[in-house]
């Protein structure tokens, strides 16, 4: 184990840098917070680059540390409390963080025999919404989440936190060209169902038995027109009261469960 | 109209104070942000105490100002941009804000002939979740939202923002004693449906035709035991994947639409 007691420590500097997307892309790692997430990453066979614990956390959780024995001792860093606090003033660091490798892959490499129900997010810009939808997709039994170019980054601290660990449970593609992806999966026989305020069908009147891609759009402008034009169904959630619309992660929850696979 | 150019102005100080609950309770007012909300409050016949606009907003939106002619000129304040910015550094003030009166009432005064479908929130602590559920309840056509003591305050800036105006559209009771409220409405013939991870019934197998109260609980500890014991149905949303749970505002969205009134 290595102790970090200076803000100039290179490893600590890297941890802080990973708040920014360009550095996550550069190093191929993102930050997981909290013991549960770190443990889950290990259970799921993810590659952990290194673990950081505050001095207090390390002292109070020696038992938990033993459960992390899979990580080589020289990749565990104990950071002085004040340093960790100063580095993460805007969030509430849980005393333990890990650098976990980002697993990026391209959509033509996906095993579409296994990916039966897919969620596609078209330029969803709020990281909280993005993370919450990934969590819901995991809960509702979907096989894959596809994020187009223009979405918030899945691996930003806020999005990762909102997934509550689901970022580790479900296959995620990011920075996908939405138009190309839709063309590709249509060719494989998927039905495209797009959620749209201007949809012509009440979602309750639509059911899906085929392989499908369920699409949600940007908070302000909705789904890109090209994708709407290629869709097999445009479905809407009716508004009965005076509200103008629903929050996108709430709308996704309603539709993901309505169209969830039958178990 | 009155110009405010000093941070010591009493009216500006009051506006800033209303970020805190004790002052909202003291003055009986909360802050609405943005033109759309202010306009909606007027349409809904709510009492507007005063309106604040930044110098720039006022200059750029003279037309909109005319639409607010219902508010007496001496209750409209033009605030220097830098002052408004300095006072609301944590949010993005939209250049126009209003003080709107809080309409509090007690549950024994409600017209239960009109309140057919009720949502009850038991100690929901995140203001974003609280506001989002109010927005969804409005969209799904519910008649009333009841917040127990221990909920985040409906009239906090973050909760109000998350409602996207629905705080003005739907009757809201706050700081209610949950146990008393449940006893009261059961006596009036309402069915109590509680959402619980330990629920025995899949929500899809339950339908409601009577008057009902749909209950959601605290993000960590769920619904209070006393309320669970008084419930007619405990329903759960099944988890098909590896996620441990759903976000409470997503869960509320799924159930509110499933049990929404038939139009």
Automatic annotation (TrEMBL), chains A, B:
CDD domains: SpoU-like_rRNA-MTase. Residues 31-106 form the RNA 2-O ribose methyltransferase substrate binding domain. InterPro entries: Alpha/beta_knot_MTases, MRM3-like_sub_bind, Ribosomal_eL30-like_sf, rRNA_Methyltransferase, SpoU_MeTrfase, SpoU_subst-bd, tRNA_m1G_MTases_N. GO terms for cellular component: cytoplasm. GO terms for molecular function: RNA binding; RNA methyltransferase activity. One of its GO terms (biological process) is RNA processing. SUPFAM superfamilies: alpha/beta knot, L30e-like. Pfam families: MRM3-like_sub_bind, SpoU_methylase. Keywords: Methyltransferase, Transferase. This is RNA methyltransferase, TrmH family. The lineage of its organism: Bacteria, Bacillati, Bacillota, Clostridia, Eubacteriales.
